[in-house]
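Cross-check.
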Amino acid sequence: MADNNTSKTDSNQNAETINKEVNNTEEILYDGTTVKKPKRIFSKYFIWGLTGFLTVVACILFYFIINNTAKIAQLFDAFNKIMMPVYFALIIAYLLAPILNFIEKKILIPIARKMKIKETAKSHKVIRGISIFFTLVISIAFIFGLLFLMISQIVPSITNLLENYSLYVENFQQWVKNTLAKNPTLVNFIIEQTGNTSEQIDDYVAKDMWTNVTKILPFMDNEGNIDWTMMQEYIKTILGGVRKGFSVLWNSILGLMISVYLLAGKEKFAGRSKKLTYSIFKRHTANEIIKDVRYANKTFIGFFGGKVIDSIIIGALCFIGTTILRTPYAALVSLFVGITNIIPYFGPFIGAIPSALLIFLVDPMHPWNTIFFIIFILILQQIDGNVIGPKILGDSTGLEGFWVIFAITVFGGFFGIPGMIIGVPLFAIIYSGLKALAAKSLSKKKLSSVSEEYIDVDYIDTDGNVHVFDYEAIEQEKKNNRDSKEWFFIGIIKNISHKIKDSSTKKKQKNSGSDSKKKKK
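Predicted model, tokenized:
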């Protein structure tokens, strides 16, 4: 019997150890099946030690970065200089991609289909090559056309403006004398501030020519002696500037060449980028990243492409209108108005105000030219804001007027004119991201993400029920309070009047009692 008991206990212990091993190596699922658990490779003590080691390494790296910021900045500068052609290529390819897509999808592919050319990989390469060729031809022709316009129209206008500047100042002074004849003190002050520019220019050219040469050439003194050491430094500075100019030109040429390859394989690059995104992030996160990048691309391309086309149209219309009005320096004014029109809201004012001052300075004795120009610009901007702009841009940013002005003000304050240009689409992307995060958080709380539904909200209780302001009840309560206050004050006045009457009757009774006593006596 004892042997049987010991054998039973041994078998029970073996069964328990086997069950423990099974529980350690197997996992029972909900459907009853068992799967093997992955074996733990590292113990918890090893993980703690590894965490401490990585923390120490991170602290050492942080200390190294803090004490070697200059060297790290130099490394980044060297890296950026090496990568500059690639940056140029990315920018050029990004700007030329919409033109390429239009030529390929709207022109060449329909022509190929009408000619019954089979859509093969070889035909696609040929169409892509022709599209890139025409894209580059159109872009280069546009740049050279703009340069030709500046050289043929703008440069003579600026030269004429500088040559006749003294005459314009004299005309302005004469206008001040005629307009402010009753206030000679103010006239003298304005004339002293403006000065006699023509005499200053004559003295500058005739008398101080050698002084001006010495200012331009600091290594030469007034007697013509040359400081060769300073001359060497001056030549180094000039050569450094020339080298930077050639470096920018060379980077632009390399960037243009690299952009051709980017445009030729833009679908493959996009596919590889998406593949890399899905390999790094989870599927839902990768979908959100690709969706956000697509929205950012649509916003930037829609805004900049539309703004460039809109500004070209406005510049052309301004040139036609100023030519008809015989406005002086029509080409210069139109170019300035067209360029500043890229900046939303403030751009028209930035372009119109200096142009109006220039027109006024040319002929201040006839201010109607300036008034007609201002009226024309106001009409042109109204047409742009209500007809041309909405047709071309549509709702490319999705921002309200307040947020557009906010973006221009903030980004313009930080980054100047470039910030005013890129601020609107960049803020539109930030605004869209914040809006998506708010909508996601509200959906978790089972609340609506429509802003209009929160206008009349008083509060939302713990059950998620929305309580709305009852304006009629509030007005009725105010009216009742007002009436109660009125009745309260009326009651006080009545009590005071009753007390006054009581006191007056008591006085009368006393007076009548005293009179009756006197009569009895």
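Residues 14-25, 27-31, 205-210, 212-216 have pLDDT under 50 and may be disordered. The CA atoms of residues 343 and 421 lie 5 Å apart. Passed to J.P. for a second look.
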